[in-house]
Design goal:
4 helices; about 0% strand; mainly alpha; single chain
Length: about 100
């Protein structure tokens, strides 16, 4: 569970940084990227919190988080900016860890 919590926290950070960088750079055409970054950061923080508290809802939260991470990774991975590529990588790791967590319980 600690690996999944770490992946969720890293992903939330990467998503928040990516959204902020896209906004700061005024990059046009990245509305979907920014929206997914925000959704993914929230999902990751939520899943990490449930895991840390030992909630009975970990399977549901991790499944949801994995789905959102997959979408965010696909979107961010389609952009050349370094922050988008780093975000996509963090999302892929989080997706993998969350899928493992959801399947293990």
């Amino acid at each position: 569970m600690d690996r999944c919590i770490a992946a969720c926290n890293d992903c939330a950070l990467a998503c928040n940084r990516c959204a902020a960088a896209c906004l700061a750079e005024g990059m046009s055409g990245l509305t979907r990227c920014i929206a997914l970054d925000i959704d993914c950061a929230a999902a990751c923080a939520f899943a990490a919190g449930l895991m840390a508290r030992g909630s009975d809802n970990v399977v549901v939260a991790c499944g949801m988080c994995a789905e959102i991470c997959q979408r965010c990774a696909a979107e961010c991975g389609s952009h050349d900016a370094d922050h988008c590529q780093r975000c996509a990588e963090a999302c892929r790791w989080c997706e993998e860890e969350c899928r493992t967590m959801a399947a293990a319980a």
